[in-house]
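User: Write out your own:

AI:
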Amino acid sequence: MDNFIFDLPFIKLPVEKQKILIVDDDPSIVDLLEQFLQRKGFECKTAENGQKALELLENSPFTIVITDLIMPQIDGLELLKIIKESWPDTDVIVMTGYTKNFTYTDVIRAGANDFVQKPFTLDEIEAKLQRLIKERQLRHTLKRLSVRDGLTDLYNRRYFDHKLKEEVIRAKRQKYPLYLLLLDIDKFKEVNDRQGHQEGDKVLQTLANTLKNSTRDHVDMLFRFGGDEFAVIIPYAKEEQAVAIAERIRNNFLKNVKNGVTISMGLAKLDANLEDAEKALKKLFSEADEALYSAKKAGGNRLVVKRAER
């Protein structure tokens, strides 16, 4: 099962760099672990108690925390609870020499990912870390599968619905412009009918790659609804910038595609005057969809911008 997941050709996850926080009021334990983990290539920081650990987590989240249970101010169980509430993606290994007071079951139920009994060996620490790292990679892979389209590696419709709502709420709160661009491939059915679905898939992948290369990295969000329908969420842009992004997509696609197809696009802006976020979202999608329909009706291979009525 693991090999199947990691061998899927469209999944190309970057290797996650592990950042480890060691929390213990015993300086000898802290020094031992820090030196060992740094030799193994891990980035490490240390804290002498739970309060200091929280301060470090606030400034720069860690992927893994290794913490003692018995500490002054904030003990390990309280620290564990706060980490799981505030940084749920952070894994926690708990250490203790007081096995009569705490059992493996106690700390796992509290949310820990693993448990180490003092005195421990460094080999034991390394083995538990490597297991956690493999589990993290698997979790991230499965999460990616749940929100990505398998053919194009763009976000899927399910994630679009979630992300558009999130972006609408954020845009209204922070008062920045937000545009939605909907795209549809013209004459795509003819490619599938005459040249086969394999050629159709190549067209879809070409558009996906064009979207990736024609939009702002880490700013614009790219989606495939299914079939030949795509979407781009464009935040922090004036109308001329959003139009330029759309036209760049269209022109670059025409240069890259070899099947005689084109794309129609509809662009709409979030209505900042609508206080109800749900109504604003529905209006944004409806207007982008209307603009797309107008582009298709006019013959395709064009962008139609839905502008507010004055």
Remarks:
- The domain at 2-147 is CATH 3.40.50.2300 (Rossmann fold).
